[in-house]
Design a protein that fits this description.
33% of the residues lie in helices and 32% in strands. It has helices spanning 2-19, 53-70, 84-93, 127-138, 143-146, 194-208, 223-228, and strands at 24-28, 31-35, 47-50, 74-80, 96-99, 102-107, 120-121, 154-161, 164-174, 177-185, 213-218, 232-243. Helix 2 (53-70) packs parallel to helix 3.
């Protein structure tokens, strides 16, 4: 499951970078970087995935230069909590441990969706439809400007509450696994179970497309929701951030 999660995570963020305004990717031996200058200070979107710690060590200088050349002000590296060599290399280079979401996964057998009428869905939502929820939930203004279109293979979901955008998420399929991204609920709609119902709808759809598993990285706020839906822990996934104000070691 851990291998599936990292493979899906890598595929999604690279596709996301290519779909963003002015975005690109840097793919080096054993390392891949998503470069999103349209959101220069949001390190989660400009992120690095790697195969082995030795690969990451060899390529860190080239990655940092690529982000600087693109005008990206903050970027992060996804690291499993067990990879002490990568952690040491990143700390020495000036990256800082910024967050530790919990990796979670479950099989899609037995998943049941919400009953008819439980969700007021926007059909085929666009990034502009997501915009008010992303700003309200994450504090990211200008999401739609940075993302003129969703990446190919991304399945967006948006639920309304009292006729207004309230909860969003997306799934991204990769070799039988569906990764969960951009889960957000505006503050005034929280505590109503919207995210859980929307996610079960998305997971049933993914199973119908042929996916057999689902993986995600859970924040402290999302963790109880996902755990109630049967996701199990597969280890913390650390986010080692470099901001341009940091001095490389």
């Amino acid at each position: 499951m851990l291998d599936r999660m990292f493979k899906t995570l890598r595929a999604f963020w690279l596709a996301n970078a290519k779909a963003s305004r002015g975005g690109s990717t840097l793919e080096l031996p054993g390392v891949a970087a998503a470069i999103v200058p349209a959101m220069p200070d949001r390190s989660v979107v400009s992120c690095v995935m790697y195969d082995e710690a030795a690969d990451l060590e060899r390529q860190l200088d080239r990655i940092d230069a690529a982000y600087r050349d693109a005008g990206v002000l903050a970027w992060t590296v996804w690291v499993h909590e067990s990879d002490q060599r990568a952690q040491a290399a990143l700390s020495a280079a000036g990256n800082v441990l910024d967050a530790e979401p919990m990796g979670q996964a479950r099989e899609l057998d037995g998943m049941e969706g919400p009953a008819d009428g439980e969700l007021d869905l926007v059909p085929n939502p666009s990034p502009a439809d997501f915009d008010p929820v992303v700003e309200g939930a994450y504090g990211w203004p200008g999401f739609a400007d940075a993302m003129p279109a969703f990446p190919e293979g991304f399945h967006p979901y948006l639920a309304l509450l009292d006729g207004r955008p309230a909860c969003c998420l997306g799934t991204f399929d990769c070799d039988g696994d569906t990764g969960i991204q951009l889960v957000g609920t505006v503050p005034e709609a929280r505590g109503r179970g919207l995210a859980g119902r929307l996610l079960t709808k998305a997971l049933v759809d993914a199973r119908d497309r042929g996916c057999t598993t689902t993986t995600l990285q859970a924040t402290a706020m999302g963790y109880p929701v996902y755990s109630r839906l049967g996701y199990r822990d597969i280890g913390r996934i650390q986010m080692w951030e470099r901001r341009m104000s940091a001095s490389p070691g």
